[in-house]
Specification:
174 residues; Aminopeptidase; 7-stranded mixed beta sheet; 30% helix; 28% strand; binds coenzyme A
Length: 174
């Protein structure tokens, strides 16, 4: 199924109204804010997975930065400078409940990782960051994401976990 998903940027006339990933706040973002953030404010770009003509999932990405002290690997931290580091932020990810468990989420994530590699080549990028909802942490861990340095301590129960995947690991896997 996932092989059949076409991944492309959101278009202005995509019908987002009947999309539901089971998280109302993500659905609301997709329906009401993904378009204006992309087309009017230029804050982020949303990529959609299209399966049989339907919007099966979406991933919203933006350019961001992180501090060296948050990089989870001590070895990598030692090699990096102390000013803000360029990263790709996966801001939101959702798969419609009718398409969950079919590989759509993984396909979207792989697309996001390929964008990070492109960013590395064209603009500079040390990795991908995301705030993982507790129920999705294992999904990200399976792709190699690890919590940011020092964030597990002091994290409120149920709060999203900031996670990171280094660009070298992405490029090696790709
Ligand atoms: C989390 C989510 C994006 C996963 O998308 P999906 O299309 O259902 O996932 P896939 O079918 O691509 O699954 C890929 C792999 O991850 C696993 N997986 C899927 N969801 C998982 C989860 N929540 N926790 C752990 N593993 C998960 C699958 O079993 C599969 O593993 P396998 O290849 O070994 O069989 C989707 O379930 C979703 O939209 N959930 C609600 C919103 C949400 O939590 N978004 C993430 C916000 S940070």
């Amino acid at each position: 199924m996932a092989q059949l998903a076409e991944i492309r940027p959101l278009a202005r006339d995509d019908n987002r109204a009947d999309f539901s990933c089971g998280q109302p706040e993500l659905d609301r973002f997709f329906e009401h804010y993904a378009g204006q953030n992309q087309f009017k404010l230029h804050l982020a770009v949303t990529y959609v997975a299209v399966v049989e003509g339907r919007l099966a999932g979406f991933a919203t990405v933006s350019v961001a930065s992180m501090e060296r002290g948050s990089v989870p690997s001590a070895r990598l931290r030692r090699r990096l400078p102390s000013y803000p580091l360029p990263v790709l932020r996966l801001a939101r990810l959702g798969v419609d409940t009718r398409f969950q468990g079919l590989g759509v989420g993984r396909s979207l994530l792989r697309h996001v990782l390929s964008l990070a590699v492109e960013q590395r080549t064209k603009l500079g990028c040390v990795g991908v960051v995301t705030d993982a909802k507790p129920a999705a942490v294992a999904f990200y861990e399976a792709l190699g994401f690890v919590p940011l340095e020092g964030v597990r301590e002091g994290l409120l129960l149920g709060a999203p976990l900031p996670m990171f995947l280094a660009i070298d690991a992405i490029a090696e896997a790709g």
